[in-house]
Amino acid sequence: MRTFYSTLFVLSTALAQSPTAPKPIVVEGKAVSSVGAAPLRKVELKLTTSDLPEGMEAMAAMFGSANPAAAADQPNSKDKTFSATTGEGGKFRFDQVEPGDYFLSAKRTGYVDGRYKPEGKYAVDGKLRLRAGDSLTDVEFRLVPLGAVGGRVLDEDGDPVSGAMVVAQSYYYGGGRRRLQPADSGQTTDRGEFRLGKLKPGRYYISVSPSNANPLAETPPPPKDGSPETGYVSTYYPNVTDIGQATAIGVAAGADLSGYVIQLRKSKVVRIKGKAVDADGKPIGNAMVMLMSPENPGSMRMRMLNNSEGRFEIAGVEPGSYIIMTTQMGESSPSIHMQPLVVPAEGLDNVQLGSQPEGTVQGNIMVAGDDKVALKGLPVMLAGGEDAPTMPVLATVSESGDFVVKKLAAAPYNFTLPHLPDGTYLKSVQLGGRERLGQTLDFSAGFAAPVQIVLGTDGGEFEATVSRDDKPVADATVVLLAADPNGRFPETTRTGESDSAGHVRMKDVPPGDYVAFAWEEVEQGEWLDAGFLKPFDNQATRVRIQPKGHEKAQLAVIPAAK
Q1: How far is Cα 266 from Cα 264, in angstroms, rounded to an integer?
Q2: Among candidates 72, 312, 137, which has minimal Cα distance to 215?
Q3: Is 5 inside a domain boundary?
C-alpha cells in the first residue's frame, strides 16, 4: 500500500508540473578582420528580422510596421532585434533568441559594415532560420578594414590651403548610366593636410574645392572693370579640373596611402542672382538657399536671406548642372523645395526659387492570384529621381491595400516599396491606367490620376552554381536580367552572391525569359548599362522562369579585368 501511494504521489507531482520549456536558441561565434584574421573587440552585432536599412527602418516605423511580412509569419508580433558586442578574442553570444528568420549584421569603427552570409542547414535566402532548440556556435564574421588616402592641398603659389573640402568619389551605375558618388570627405588642416579614412576597397577620384559653405559670409563684389571673374575651382588629382583627365587611386582593404599633393587650379566662375518666393509668389525673407552638385559635394554654396525682397546672390560658381534648395523657416517645421538648375557660362540674373503647389495622390495595391498577403502597414515611398530632385514622401498601406501620399510636388517621382512581402514581386505600376514599371511617375501636370500597384505571387526560383575550370567560385556576382533589353529595370533584375560552394539562389523571380551572368568583379548596377553588357553577350546563359517554376543553371565565371 505504501508503494501504491508513493507511486501515486510521484505521478500527481509530475502532472502538476508545467510542460518542459523549449530549449532557448543560442547564436555565438567570433568577429575577425578579413586581413590577417585578427580577433576584433567592440564589434556591435545585430540579429534582426527586418531587412530595411537603419534610416529607412526608422522612417517606416513612423508610418507603421517596418516589416509586415515578417510580422505576418508570427501573428501579433513585431520585428525582433537582438544585440551583442564582442569582447576578448572577438567572441560574441546571443542568448534567449526567439524563433524566426534573421539577418546578422555587424559594425565597428574602422571597418566596412558587414552582413553575415549563412551557409548550411541554417541558411534560407541569405537569412539565418532559427528554430526552438537550435544552437549555432561556430559563426565567424569577417569584417573588411577600411582604407585611407592622405596628402596636402596647395594654392597656385605652393602655399598650404586650410579649410578646403576634400572628397573621395567613386563611380556607380544609376538610371542606366555611370555616375559619381561621394564616399568620404573632410577639410584640410591649417597646414593644408587631409586624410580620408572611411574608404571601402575600390578606386577613388580625389577632388578638392575651396571652402564656400558659410551662409553668412559676405558676397565679394564683381570686378570693377567688368572683366570675367576667375577663382579657385574644384580640382582633381593630379591637378586637373576635368574628371575625365583625373587619375583614380586604388585603395585595398586596410591600406593607408599618403603623400598625395593636389594644387588648386583657377578657372572662370560666374554669379547667380534671383529671389525666393512662396507658393503665392510673395517674397521669402527668412530662408536658406543652398546650391550643390550631386556629383561634387565640395561645390556647395549657401546663402542666408536677410532682406524683405527675398533676393540672393551667389558668387564663385563654376558653370554646370546643380540642384538648388530653398529652406523656408516656419513656425512649426521648415519647408524645403528643391529644383534642378543649369548654370551657363554667362551666369544667371533672374532665378526664381521657392515653394510650388503641393498635391495628394490616391493609390491602391492589389495582389494577383489567390495567395494571402498581408498589406497593412506596408511602407510606400515616392522619391525624386537623380535628374529631378524632390524630397521623398512616405505613406503606409491599409488592410484593403489603399494608400494616400500627401504633400507631393508637381514633379516626377520614382515609386518604391522599401520592403516587398515574402512571396511577392512588383508586377505592375500604373499611373492613370498607363504602365510605368521601371519608369517615373510624373505629376507635373496634376495629381488626379490614381496609382495602381499589382504584386505578383507566381514568381519562380532560380538556382545557379558558379565555377571556373570545374571548381566552385565564391563571392561571384550573379545577375539575372530580362532577355528583352527594353524590360531591364532594377525591379525586373535579380542579383546574388555565390557562397563557398559557388551556389546562389534567387526567389520570387517574375515569370519570363532571362539571361544570366556571373562576374568575378563588377560594379554595382553596371549590368544595366547596355554598352558595358554588349561584350559579354556570348557569355550569357538563357533561362526561362515558369510561374512558380524552379530552374537551375551552371554558370562559368567571367574573370575580373586585369
Answers
A1: 7
A2: 312
A3: no
The percent of residues in the chain predicted with pLDDT above 90, rounded, is 58
> Residues 541-558: pLDDT tens digits?
999 999 999 999 999 999
pTM of the complete model beyond 0.85: no
Task: Report residue 35 as a C-alpha cell.
Answer: 586581413
pLDDT at 52: 62
Strand (E) or helix (H) holding 531 = helix 530-533
Number of separate domains in the chain: 4
Tens digit of each residue's pLDDT (9 = 90 or more) over 268-304: 999 999 998 877 778 887 888 889 887 777 788 888 8
CATH number, domain containing residue 412: 2.60.40.10
Average pLDDT of the residues in 474-503: 94
Domain range spanning residue 93?
A: 25-143
Last residue of a domain, one of 143, 178, 202: 143
For the stretch 406-456, pLDDT in tens is 988 888 899 999 888 989 999 999 999 999 999 999 998 889 999 999 999
Nearest partner of 548 among 418, 425, 419, 437, judged by Cα: 425
Q: Which of 249, 294, 293, 245 is nearest to 265 (CA)?
A: 245
Chain-centre distance of CA 558, in angstroms?
Answer: 26
Contact 211, 182 (CB under 8 A): no
CB-facing half-sphere around the CA of 55: CA atoms within 13 A: 1
- Residue 19 maps to a domain: no
Ramachandran angles phi, psi of 48, nearest 5°? -145, 150
Query: Which H/E stretch holds residue 7?
Result: helix 2-16
- Type of residue numbered 500: S
207: left (phi over 0), alpha (psi -120 to 50) or beta: beta
Q: Do both 337 and 207 map to the same domain? A: yes
Residues 169, 298: Cα–Cα separation, whole Å: 11
Mean pLDDT of the chain: 87
Cα–Cα dist 275/254, whole Å: 48
| Measured distance CA(262)–CA(194) in Å, rounded | 11
Q: How far is 396 from 377, CA to CA, in rounded Å?
A: 5
